[in-house]
Amino acid sequence: MNGVTIIQTKLDDHQSKKWFYSLMDTYEKPVDDIKNDDVFLAMTNEKAIGRVALYKNELRRLFVVPEYRQNGIGKQLVVSVIELARKKGVTQLELRTRASMTPAIQLYTQLGFIAQSTPIANFQFVMRKDL
Ligand SMILES: CC(C)(COP(=O)(O)OP(=O)(O)OC[C@H]1O[C@@H](n2cnc3c(N)ncnc32)[C@H](O)[C@@H]1OP(=O)(O)O)[C@@H](O)C(=O)NCCC(=O)NCCS
Fold this sequence. Notes:
- The chain is an alpha+beta fold.
- The chain has a single domain (5-130), classed as Gcn5-related N-acetyltransferase (GNAT) (Aminopeptidase, 3-Layer(aba) Sandwich), CATH 3.40.630.30.
- The protein contains three helices and seven strands; from the N terminus they run βαβββαβαββ.
- It has a four-stranded antiparallel sheet, with helices on both faces. It has a three-stranded antiparallel sheet with strand order 5-7-6, with helices on one face.
- It is globular.
- It starts with a strand and ends with a strand.
- The protein binds coenzyme A.
- Coenzyme A is lined by residues 62-64, 69-75, 97, 101-104, 106-107, 110.
């Protein structure tokens, strides 16, 4: 999407942490457990509108602000994680999602992630991609 830049950062950077928090939903766990993750933020007009994190071989915390969705930003974020994981020598990238997260599942499938079990109700299930 025009005017959107993806930046790579870490949450020990004060400004990045502020931006990341600006995208937090109340149901989400606190951000402390991702402070060592590599983080990508989608930025426009100095405002964060999307994010994703990589911890070891796990992609987590993918989110795009609703009014910016379906513009390719989610895909750009996931591709950024795939490229970084490859650079770090990760051979299998993993994530957890839920059956209700249809857009996310579509996106992951399009990028080559494969469900490791049949999604049941709204339980979490694992998807993996060989790199
Ligand atoms: C999942 C999410 C990040 C996608 O972000 P996005 O910027 O809208 O995604 P993109 O525009 O890059 O779309 C990429 C692909 O995702 C899929 N997709 C996106 N929105 C979709 C929708 N509403 N319905 C079905 N598939 C959808 C499509 O496969 C799409 O590819 P296409 O454009 O070639 O059809 C966004 O919907 C979101 O933040 N959802 C809530 C949080 C969430 O579910 N996170 C995942 C946790 S595991």
